[in-house]
UniProtKB/TrEMBL annotation:
GO biological process: DNA recombination; transposition
Organism whose genome encodes this protein: Halorientalis regularis
Spans through the membrane: none
Domain (Cas12f1-like TNB): residue spans on this chain: 306-373
NCBIfam families per the UniProt record, alphabetical: guided_TnpB
UniProt-recorded name of the protein: Transposase, IS605 OrfB family, central region
Domain Probable transposase IS891/IS1136/IS1341: 193-275
Family: In the C-terminal section; belongs to the transposase 35 family.
InterPro entries referenced in this protein's UniProt entry, alphabetically: Cas12f1-like_TNB (IPR010095), Transposase (IPR001959)
Keyword line: DNA recombination, DNA-binding, Transposition
């Protein structure tokens, strides 16, 4: 397994280039979706195309013709689609739910020919030729950019340009791997279970549909409100009992299902985005098997939402090169998530409030739960690494991404936000 690191960088994009970048992303998504269209087959996974060469031979000329993208960007778009189709086929083979990959989120993959990284600026291909942009780095030195992108110890692999609507900003996530003096990739162990990982823990609940270990809350209020509205309307129509009301009831049911799916899709996209923004490799949920027992106050539509959310995230994460894992959920909501404490007691928790009976720390209960989900994965993985015979692999670090920093076995470490 290679040692990989990602450096996040915020671009300073002059106004005159912004439209070029937006148009580049639009055309990149177009190519990825065209490739997905061509490679996916709904009837049989044996008929899906998962070879990059086959897809490129079939699509490259047409996509170059139809877009203003450079050769490398078209190839990366096809590669992205192949990657997603391949993961889809894998899921399909295992009997899991799967669909033709669809690319909707703003993101463009750059290889080392379409983007060049200098000490203080980046040069990149757009639909309108190459542009140069400065970037903002955090004040703390060495920054991940200096440590990995500019260092001879690491080699550039690929990078993804993303746009954040909330801040109207453009970000590069630059992926590198460690190399030795001959430029060969440094391998640590041979199993997939080694190598550094950054984890995003997610807790699911009734008050907040989802909470991440980074402290982002997805409130359940709006979801509950609309489910309640749909129920009210349904009850009204059922009382009328006419044929017209019956037909309206069927239409309402259809609309409600479509609405619920759409809502959970949005949350799932945001969860994946949260993990991307924090450079996570793994998104971790608590296993849902006994969810009814653990959350006696949850209604059927909550349970439905949890299952769908995990499913949608599992479906979307591979497209962004992230894995999804589940951990044993016991006591994640009763345990103090401070690494120097970890005291577990059911009286620690009182509804939404968590107060540790041992160390006295107070925290939102769901946020505490999300950190514990991440920490449980960390311990599970460390345990696995220790019992693995591969030398050196036990040192492979795992960090849980929390608000403003990282948690690992040694405690909390703040990080400079980029
Ligand atoms: Zn405590």
């Amino acid at each position: 397994m290679e040692v990989r690191r990602t450096a996040p960088v915020k671009l300073v994009v002059p106004d005159e280039y912004r439209d070029d970048l937006h148009e580049t992303a639009e055309q990149f998504l177009y190519c990825a979706n065209e490739a997905s269209d061509y490679c996916w087959d709904n009837t049989d996974y044996e008929d899906c195309i998962t070879s990059n060469v086959t897809a490129r031979d079939a699509l490259y000329d047409r996509l170059r013709e139809e877009t203003d993208l450079t050769a490398n960007l078209v190839q990366e778009a096809i590669r992205r689609a192949i990657h997603a189709v391949d993961s889809g086929v894998d899921r399909w083979k295992k009997g899991k739910r799967t669909n033709k990959p669809e690319f909707t989120s703003w993101s463009v993959v750059y290889d080392k020919r379409s983007a060049t990284f200098y000490r203080n600026e980046i040069s990149l291909s757009t639909v309108n030729g190459r542009i140069e942009c400065d970037f903002e780095l955090p004040a703390d030195s060495p920054t991940p950019y200096e440590e990995y992108v500019l260092s001879d110890d690491y080699e550039f692999r690929t990078s993804t340009l993303q746009y954040d609507q909330a801040t109207d900003g453009f970000y590069f996530h630059i992926k590198t791997r460690k190399v030795d003096t001959d430029g060969e990739a440094v391998e640590i162990g041979s199993s997939d279970d080694t190598g550094h990982q950054t984890v995003l823990g997610i807790d699911l609940g009734v008050n907040s549909l989802a909470v991440s270990s980074t402290g982002t809350f997805w409130s359940g209020d709006e979801y509950d409100h609309w489910i309640h509205e749909f129920e009210k309307r349904r009850a009204e129509m059922q009382q009328r009992g006419t044929q017209a009301a019956h037909n309206a009831l069927l239409r309402l049911g259809k609309r409600e299902r479509a609405w619920r799916k759409q809502y959970i899709h949005t949350v799932a996209n945001e969860v994946v985005e949260e993990a991307v923004v924090h450079d996570c490799d793994v998104i971790v949920f608590a296993d849902l098997t006994d969810i009814r027992g653990r959350l006696p106050h949850a209604d059927w539509h909550h349970i439905w939402a949890f299952r769908r959310l995990v499913e949608y995230v599992e479906y979307k994460a591979p497209e962004r090169s992230m894995a999804v894992e589940q951990v044993e959920p016991a006591h994640t909501s009763q345990r103090c998530s401070r690494t120097d404490c970890g005291f577990t007691h059911e009286d620690n928790r009182d509804g939404e409030q968590f107060q540790c009976l041992n160390c006295g720390c107070e925290i939102n209960a769901d946020y505490d739960g999300a950190k514990n989900v991440g920490l449980r994965y960390l311990r599970k993985r460390q345990h696995r690494l220790r019992s693995s015979p591969t030398p050196g692999s036990a040192d492979a670090p795992v960090d849980v991404r929390v608000n403003g920093g990282m948690l690992n076995g040694d405690g909390y470490r703040p990080t400079a936000e980029s």
